Amino acid sequence: MDTETRIGVDVGGTFTDVALLTPEGRLVTAKVPSTDDQSVGVVRGIEKACDDAGIDPAEVDAFTHAMTVSVNALLEDDGATTALVTTEGFRDVLEIGRQARPDLYDVTADKPAPLVPRRRRFEVTERATVDGIQTEVDESEVRALADDIRDAGAESVAVSLLHAYQHPENERVVADVLREELDAPVSASHEVLAEFREFERTSTTAVDAYVTPAIDSYLGRLESRAADLGVPVPKIMQANSGIAPASTVREHAVTTTMSGPAAGVVGAAETATDSGDDLAGLVTFDMGGTSSDVSLVRDDEVERTTDAEINGRPIKTPMVDVNTVGAGGGSIAWVDSGNALRVGPRSSGANPGPACYGRGGTEPTVTDANVVLGYIGGSSALGGELSLDVDAARDALAGLADEAGLDDALAAARGVYRVANANMTRAIRAVTVERGHDPRQFGLVAFGGAGPMHAAALAESLDIETVVVPRACGVLSAYGLLAADQKHDSVRTLRQPLSGLDAAAVDSAYADLEADTLDDVTDPDDAAVRRAADLRYVGQSFELTVPVGETFDAAAVEARFHEAHESAYGYRLDDPVELVNVRATAVVERDSLDVTYRGGGDARKDTREAFFDGAFRETPVYDRDGLGTGTTVEGPAILEQHESTVVVPPAWGGTVGADGTLVLTSGGDGE
Question: Which residues form the Acetophenone carboxylase-like C-terminal domain (predicted)?
Fold first, then answer.
């Protein structure tokens, strides 16, 4: 049994979620309102969870944290005043980009403004090629440039020189001089992303510089508050699904984007990995108030990508591959100019929120539709505090029905429910069918405040037969923080044809990468280093990542690439294969969570009319926390808990596992 008391805290836009696990396996969860200074809400959440658990915060042995500081800075254009230093003649790379329009057929669509405006983009005389340094940088020129950067009011600096991924000598000189001359953080591209493609490397480095001051300031405040509370210095969740020391994250701030969603996927994997031996993997489905996040877990590993954008800015560092759609519990339903019913992406937010909250909201939302359909009842209390106004929900849906030409509020509610489900089904297809995976071979893990209400219906539409609802489904990102391993990534471009591979160069590159990743690990002796490689057919402009063993076996790696290409795109070629990038990931695994669950008692609460199979049916309502281990539930049924509600349709049944996880299985055809 784990002897640590662990606490995980995930900050969201509305609530800060907390999960605390004692050495005895007792899981305590809490929610508190998020605060403008997120560290204040974090401390309040820790105090509340510890108070509920009956322990002193000083008894906490391990503190792990996910936050939205960096992603908020990007979404709200509220990061540092940033300068960019680049090779003479290339100051506009960041603005030119890839010449790709956000909407192919919209000639008026605007691209996002670059994070660094042209007046703060500076050039330095130097030149490198893939073969080496042609023109060395002049330190005196860089020192003079530092004065210009200071005069421009820059709070942070990004340095991205041509071909510095291959030959970083000039870039290293520039970065070192600027660090001496300026009282501002400096992000160098060869330290952030030693990978080719100038625009993406420059963009990623600019993002790192843009969010670094905010991350550094926030973590400083959090560490101080944690010390006052007696809680250990936090380890921080990265977008790559691994945690890292706060000191490391301060040097690689770009790695914290998508921190919270990554923790949720880790929590889903930890909870549901053993739910079916015959499953090819898991589809994770997180439906919150504003949006739904979908991702994949295969071979017990979270799917990752290095091809992501946030607010139109490419970020090439590894992160959990999450597909997001604007369909959440608070998503507003509306009628478009063609008289079609639409849902989202606009949301009612938390205040006033859906009409059923009784806080002044009048626009119909997905949550209001669930109320009219009977999936949420007037006696339900969201978060243990908020009672619902059924009449207000019905009035909002009646207004939508009039606008859409539907019969009544029920018809509108059915339409909203179906449209929202269709939006989320497309998101699931995007990470499964469109990437060569059959969703029928996967289980669906549902979490978030609204996810378990829609999960079975989504599963039916995709012929998925297993739905897993974790016990801590309303705070699963915080729960995932308790289980996340420590991970550090490194990459280097090394373009070579597999047929004429320079084995010594490949071995040397991997040795350097492993040393880099182990430098960031707190316990190098406990770390395992995993190798991977990016490959493509010669002439392609995109790569696929495949695993590599302890030694680089070109034939085995090529076979894996052919297989991966056929799985992703439906075909393979006889064309020669090219090695593009080599990758290494150092992993320090944490002990698996050992959670005890007691449950039991009188779980039956009451009954209410809920809509299934085209009609209202008298449906039993249970207190989910009262269901004991091994209890079976037959649909139709509704299971309520403070943070979420589970809807079990007819032809579905469920069993409560030893840790309180509910596994639903389909026993026939539903509506």
Answer: 504-652
pLDDT of 363 over the 60 cut: yes
What angle (nearest 5°) sits at the alpha carbon of residue 128, between those of residues 125 and 134?
A: 80
CB 412 within 8 A of CB 333: yes
257: pLDDT strictly greater than 70: yes
Return the closest-CA partner of residue 496 out of 203, 198, 196.
196
Contact between residue 633 and residue 654 where contact means Cβ atoms under 8 Å apart: yes
User: Is 671 within a domain?
Assistant: no
Collapsed DSSP state (helix, strand, coil) of residue 666: strand
The number of domains in the chain is 3
pLDDT tens digits for 620-641? 999 998 999 999 999 899 999 8
The per-residue pLDDT for 670 is 40
Q: Are 314 and 111 in contact (CB under 8 A)?
A: no
Phi, psi of 428 (to 5 degrees): -65, -40
Residue range of the domain that includes 563: 487-588
Q: Kind and range of the H or E element at 656?
A: strand 652-656
Domain shared by 89 and 172, yes or no: yes
Give φ, ψ of 209 to 5 degrees.
-65, -40
Task: Please indicate, yes or no, if residue 195 is contained in any of the structural domains.
Answer: yes
- Amino acid at the residue 563: E
The CATH number given to whatever domain includes residue 172 is 3.40.1360
Q: What is the dihedral of CA 602, 603, 609, 610, to 10 degrees?
A: -170
Do 399 and 516 reside in the same domain of the chain? no
88 and 208, same domain (yes or no)? yes
Give domain status of residue 644, yes or no: no
Same domain, 171 and 85: yes
* Overall pTM > 0.85: yes
352-389: b or e for each residue (b if 16 or more CB lie within 10 Å)?
ebbbbbbeebebbbbbbbbbbbbbbbeebebeeeeebb
Question: What distances in angstroms separate CA 124 from CA 144, 146, 161, 186, 207, one per listed residue?
Answer: 10, 11, 9, 16, 21
pLDDT in tens, 264-275: 999 998 887 666
Q: Is residue 385 part of a domain?
A: yes
Burial of 197 by CB count in 10 Å (0-12 exposed, 13-18 middle, 19+ buried)? middle
Pairing of strands 577-588, 486-497: antiparallel
Residue 2 has what pLDDT? Answer: 62
CB count in 10 Å sphere of residue 264 = 31
At residue 99 the predicted structure's pLDDT band, cuts being 50, 70 and 90, is confident
pLDDT in tens, 69-88: 998 898 888 999 999 999 99
